[in-house]
Amino acid sequence: MVVSTGTAPEVWKDASVSAEDRVEALMARMSLPEKVAQLYGVWVGIDNSDGEMAPHQHEFTALPVAWDELVKDGMGQLTRPFGTAPVDVVRGAATLANAQRSIMAAGRWGIPAVVHEEILTGLAAWKAGVYPSPLCWGAGFDPDLVERMGAQIGATMRRLGVHQGLAPVVDVTRDLRWGRVEETIGEDPVLVGMIGAAYVRGLQSAGVVATLKHFVGYSASRGGRNLAPVSAGRREIADVLLPPFEMALQAGAGSVMNSYADIDGTPVAADPGLLTDLLRETYGFTGTVVADYFSVAFLQTLHNVAGSPAEAAGLALTAGIDVELPTVNCYGPPLVEAVERGEVDAALVDRALRRVLLQKCRLGLLDEGWSPEPPVLDEAGDVVLDDAAVRSLAGELARRSIVLLSNTGTLPLAAGLRLAVVGPRAHTPQAMMGCYSFPMHVGVHHPDAGLGIEVPTLVDALRADPAGYDVRYEQGVPVLGGDDDGIAAAVAAAADADVCVAVLGDQAGLFGRGTSGEGCDATSLRLPGRQEELLEAVLATGTPVVLVLLVGRPYELGRQIDRLAAVVCGFFPGEEGAAALADVLSGRADPAGRLPVGFPADGGNQPSTYLAAPLGRRSEVSNVDPTPLFAFGHGLSYTPITWTGVAGDASGTWPTDGTFDVRVTLHNGAPGPVSEVVQVYLHDPVAEVARPVQSLLSAHRVDLAPGETREVTISLHADQTSYTGASWRRQVDPGEVELRVGASSADIRETITVSMTGPRRHVGFDRVMQATVTST
Prior knowledge:
By secondary structure, this protein is an alpha/beta fold. The protein is 26% helix and 19% strand.
């Protein structure tokens, strides 16, 4: 409760005054050290025993001075108070409130810190729910469901006093060997932008800030190596890597995080062309740019473009990075001293400070009477972060995202079968979660704390299944390593079963502690360790083998696909993933997922995605065939929907400043509900530059009840056909194009030839980027 003193608040605390005026009034009274203090975070961890805040131990995170000295001028952000170690949520919230009071009391102005956390698969806190990984979001092709998830994550953040979340990742997959493929949404910019924008809308509907990662080019690193230089050209950046950021910015994203990488020698953290000219002046972005962890210091220590922390601070601030994260290395005393020496323009400090304070103002942190007490402290009874609503939504998204890649009729599994369930991912909760989930990111370093949440394994789910399966489990081999005896035990189990379910895939981890995740890049796209050897051994028994993949990236299956009874891909489907997989394997749920990334026939063809110009596809000038085994957008159902009609506007013309409608009629003749993703691709036969043979314009999921027929109208805007031409401007061309309508990029049901009429148009950031879809 706020008690009125009867006196008017200072202008900068007055919520009735415009945010801009409040911020200017405050800035006019601040000293240089007070201004700079708002431009960095401090990485803190909550000590679960005594409730004190302590700096996270890392070579970069040692505090330059004691805590009391550090906070005397204020503080911009607190880094991951809940996401650094397992901590009781109530004790953690109380300790966070104490820290905020300490910060407010120490500084002259009483400005609290913004609190940020990782939120890629849910809030990264002990006992918080773990949702499916971003590849699952892409596989779901369901932005409304992702928006609901974002809103649920945002509500949890607000309960705990967290203001900013470091997600979504809207990097476009470019090389499957890259360890962070599991954090991406897919290989197509329209899909990534559509899903990423939905996440932003949902998260920010809760009154918190989403942070887009990693602007820009990070996923195009050379050789698929983490932080490696980027060789992408201007057109690839403009037409493939930037559109998802543009779509998410159009959705209102409040923050952007820079890419670690250098592009043609210039680190993004030191590039004003990207972080200021493009992001601010072209896109009109007014939020905050926060540094990816340690990236300001990396300008000196890794990129070697700065000779000191002060020089690194000057480069980053000039480029447009407003806040140094995760802790103060360069933006503290080194920056203050550089400004005082005249080496860094004080106006750059004011520029960044204005953005930071505007965001704090809009979050309510500058309001008179703002309370540091997180709402969770007012809740009665036990505090639960992973409640029934969270698990229900996590399960819904998991079921939506499971992809049936192939099936010879073995699936769905008949009731009562004897199942041999083998493989290193079959009976471990870790198989369901990606590297940025709390259990895999933090919990693995605190094994005594336990997972904190219930994450059943696929063996658990199949043993409890109402279909009454007789389940025998043998690991065979771990993800990496193993011995012949383990393989022999798995073979014996498979030989004695009606069906063998081989559950293979990745161990999520960080910096080499796994086979997928940040810093866990691959030199080959063969299944890790001896898993392919295990698969070959159980196939040799003659028992039908259903392969279930729990992976952070696609792997090559070309050597086994003709002998497998079925292949199901779950990526990392989260805490309810096992139940969702059991529903699909048993036939209670029809497979609904579609591939957001293609599966290669041969992993040696990397990097390669479906967005290839003619000479990037199979041709007579090379003996290497990059055609994928399973294409982008592919996914089977047990009872496929009938496509009864595809048609375009009768005129066959499309104004270069107008729309063109495509109508698709679908019918479900099955006894149960089914789902289809209607995909529309553009093929431009003649363009000013070499363009992809086809690229996605629209993807819309359609759910049909038994016996239902539905017509879907997809209204495409000419802006969606735009590309970066020879003049380096984005243009819409007149001329003939093809609209390829189908169930995947390789399953085209109808091709509509359209003549685009009118003058060439140039379009910009305000262009229409998504189709409008209606159904009857």
